[in-house]
Structure formats: structure tokens, C-alpha cells
């Protein structure tokens, strides 16, 4: 009997007021949650702002020099010229270099003819001992004169041959990188790189959220133009493989993605062998790559090929969780008007000029980034370090000499 009046005592006005209070509480909770989420995100970005600094806006400094692919001739650095005759043979260096080095020559122009060498004089059977000794001395003098003439003639034809553009293949290693997709950290990625100076094998693995792992494999050898890919395999997530084959016998580039073929140009690279080709050139002669210097590469993708202009931006500091590392920044310039896709590479001298950071920016602004996460090897007295000259106590377990067993990650 008492319940009915209680029910009747709840007026519509009170009910509406209670509903409004409940609605306000719900909205207050939602706003608090949104503010809290924004606060957490702001703290995260503030904490990682300096560590993972985005690529600066497109900057094209004044061009200093344009370097095009040149034919290079395999020759050990510092090796002496061939002796013209035994008596005048030049002295050889005590130790050969430990690095694979290529010396560039420019095609064209007739090769200089070596000066005729004097044949050693031989004394007749009946000649006296004094006459034989005099003839031998004359032969040695003639051979020395011929060697001097040959050297002078080679200096006179300098415009037909370059003094020697060095090319040094980076040391092998299992390289580990922190990966980021639009600034968000993902699982670590790897670059597997091995080379013995004659062949090479490179596999890049980048895990991406929701779509799977992107992998890029380049395998080939070293020829007269540096790295020479034989096959490039690209696999993006769950999609099938796209294979690019460099047919050296027919001088053609074939694709599985399209029936079209392209002529195989000298010095042609794929998208990732280009990085190591650049590293090999910089490693061979770092002083040649000053800010503004641009080198051209012919690069093939999984269905096309084009010229990539790669410009030296300058020396910068790469920030990592382990600290900082000095590196030289290279950027692919726009290939055509309206080209918004960018590739930035930072090569570190203390890592043997291996990549310390790579950033690929898509036309829609999406960025895929790799940042070195291995140990940092201290530079030597010259400001550079590699597997060849790093002290045994230096903490660099992920990079090894060419020909040595790859270090464990």
C-alpha cells in the first residue's frame, strides 16, 4: 500500500533532472578520458621529439658537381705498374691493401703505346768477361730509360684515364634497426649484408603493422662498374613476390610484374643495391662527397627503371636510443616535376659507412624509417672506423670483415 504513493511522488520534472545529471556525468567522463589520452600522447611525442626527428622539408642546395657512372677497372689500390723488364722493375709495396678497391678509367681514346724496351744484350760466346759486363750494364741503362719514357707518356695521356676513383665494398654484417611507421615504433627490422668482394647478398626486412613484413632481397656480383645485381625480389606483406632479373648475357632487364623488358645499362642498380653502391663509393673516397655533390644512378624497380640523382646534403647527427652518431646525409632529388617521393640515407663513418638511418617518404606523406639500434663503434684517430681498422676491444659485434664469418646480432 505504501509503494504506490512513493511511485506517484516521482514527478516528471525530477525524472528529467536526474537524466540530465546522468548525461552531464557521462559527458564529463568522456571529456576527461579524451583529455587524458591527449595528455599521454603529448607526453609521448614530447619525449621522443628529439630522438626521432622527422625529415626536414625538401632542401636542394647549390649543386657543386654531377657524378655519372664511369667504367671502372679492377685494380688493387697502391699496386705498382707492370715491370717492363727485370732490371728496371719498380719496388712493390710491403703489404697489399685489405679492402676490395676498384680504379675508374674513362672509356674512349686510343690506349698509349708503351715505349719499346731494350732487349738485354748478350755477349757472344767468344767475348771476354769485361765485354759481357759492359753489355749487361748498357742493357740495364736502356731498360731504365724505356721505363721513364713510358711513365712520361702515361702522364701525357691523363685526359684519357682517371687518376683512380676508389670503390670499397662495406664489411659484412647482420645489421639491426628500430623501425617506425609514421613515427610509431614497430618491431625491429634487419639488413642482412654479406660480401667477399666478388659477390654480395642483401636482404632488407621491415615489419609493418596490419600488413605484414616488407622484404627486399638483392643478390649479385661485383663487376667493372661496382655492384651488379643479378636478381631483385620484392615482397610486400601478404602479396606475392615481384622479381626483377638482370640478364647479363642478353643485356636485358626482365620483370615478373610486366612482360616489358628494359635494356641493361652499365652500372644499373635496384632500389636497395643502390644504397650499398653509394656506401661503397663513399667508403672508397669520402672526401669526394661534399655538400651539393650529386651522383646519378640508373635504378630499376619491379616494373620500370629511371635515373636517380642522389645529392650529398652534409654531415649531421643521428639520434638513437643508445645515444648519437655522426653520419653523412644523402637525399634523392625529385626525378620530375611534382615528384613528392623521397629517399633519405645517412651513412656513418664509425660503422664503416654502413647506413645509420634510412627514411622513405611516400607521396601521401607516409614515412617508413629505419634507425640503427646496434652498438656504436668509436672512431679512430682519423675520425673513421671500419671492421678492418677497429680495435679488437671496440664494441662492434654486428659488423665483420669481408670474407669473415658474419657476427651474431
UniProtKB/TrEMBL annotation:
A Pfam family annotated for this UniProt entry: DUF3108
Membrane-spanning intervals of the chain: 25-45
Domain of life: Bacteria
Transcription regulation listed as a keyword: no
InterPro entries listed in its UniProt record: DUF3108
Record key words, sorted: Membrane, Transmembrane, Transmembrane helix
Low complexity bias (residue ranges): 75-88
Entry keyword Manganese: no
Location of the region described as Disordered in the Swiss-Prot/TrEMBL record: 75-126, 150-169, 377-409
Protein name: DUF3108 domain-containing protein
Taxonomic source organism: Paraburkholderia bengalensis
Amino acid at each position: 500500500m505504501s509503494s504506490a504513493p512513493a511511485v506517484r511522488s516521482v514527478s516528471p520534472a525530477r525524472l528529467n533532472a536526474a537524466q540530465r545529471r546522468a548525461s552531464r556525468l557521462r559527458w564529463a567522463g568522456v571529456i576527461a578520458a579524451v583529455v587524458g589520452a591527449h595528455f599521454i600522447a603529448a607526453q609521448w611525442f614530447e619525449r621522443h621529439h628529439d630522438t626521432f626527428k622527422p625529415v626536414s622539408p625538401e632542401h636542394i642546395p647549390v649543386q657543386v658537381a654531377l657524378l655519372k657512372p664511369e667504367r671502372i677497372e679492377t685494380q688493387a689500390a697502391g699496386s705498382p705498374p707492370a715491370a717492363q723488364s727485370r732490371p728496371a722493375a719498380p719496388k712493390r709495396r710491403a703489404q697489399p691493401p685489405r679492402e676490395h678497391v676498384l680504379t675508374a678509367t674513362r672509356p674512349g681514346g686510343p690506349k698509349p703505346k708503351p715505349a719499346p724496351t731494350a732487349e738485354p744484350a748478350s755477349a757472344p760466346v767468344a767475348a771476354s768477361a769485361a765485354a759481357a759486363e759492359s753489355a749487361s750494364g748498357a742493357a740495364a741503362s736502356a731498360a731504365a730509360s724505356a721505363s721513364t719514357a713510358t711513365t712520361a707518356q702515361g702522364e701525357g695521356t691523363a685526359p684519357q684515364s682517371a687518376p683512380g676513383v676508389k670503390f670499397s665494398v662495406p664489411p659484412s654484417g647482420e645489421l639491426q634497426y628500430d623501425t617506425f611507421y609514421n613515427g610509431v615504433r614497430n618491431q625491429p627490422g634487419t639488413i642482412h649484408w654479406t660480401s667477399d668482394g666478388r659477390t654480395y647478398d642483401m636482404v632488407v626486412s621491415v615489419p609493418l603493422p596490419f600488413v605484414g613484413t616488407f622484404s627486399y632481397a638483392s643478390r649479385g656480383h661485383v663487376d667493372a662498374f661496382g655492384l651488379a645485381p643479378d636478381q631483385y625480389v620484392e615482397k610486400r606483406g601478404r602479396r606475392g613476390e615481384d622479381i626483377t632479373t638482370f640478364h647479363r648475357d642478353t643485356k636485358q632487364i626482365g620483370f615478373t610484374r610486366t612482360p616489358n623488358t628494359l635494356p641493361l645499362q652499365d652500372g644499373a642498380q635496384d632500389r636497395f643495391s643502390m644504397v650499398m653502391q653509394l656506401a661503397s663509393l663513399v667508403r672508397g673516397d669520402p672526401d669526394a662527397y661534399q655538400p651539393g655533390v650529386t651522383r646519378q644512378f640508373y635504378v630499376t624497380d619491379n616494373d620500370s627503371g629511371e635515373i636517380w640523382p642522389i645529392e650529398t646534403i652534409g654531415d649531421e647527427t643521428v639520434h638513437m636510443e643508445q645515444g648519437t652518431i655522426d653520419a653523412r646525409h644523402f637525399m634523392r632529388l625529385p626525378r620530375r616535376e611534382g615528384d613528392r617521393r623521397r629517399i633519405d640515407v645517412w651513412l656513418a663513418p664509425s660503422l664503416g659507412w654502413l647506413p645509420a638511418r634510412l627514411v622513405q617518404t611516400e607521396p601521401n606523406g607516409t614515412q617508413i624509417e629505419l634507425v640503427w639500434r646496434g652498438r656504436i663503434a668509436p672512431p679512430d684517430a682519423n675520425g673513421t672506423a671500419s671492421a678492418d681498422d677497429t680495435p679488437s676491444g671496440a664494441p662492434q659485434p654486428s659488423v665483420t670483415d669481408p670474407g669473415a664469418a658474419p657476427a651474431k646480432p
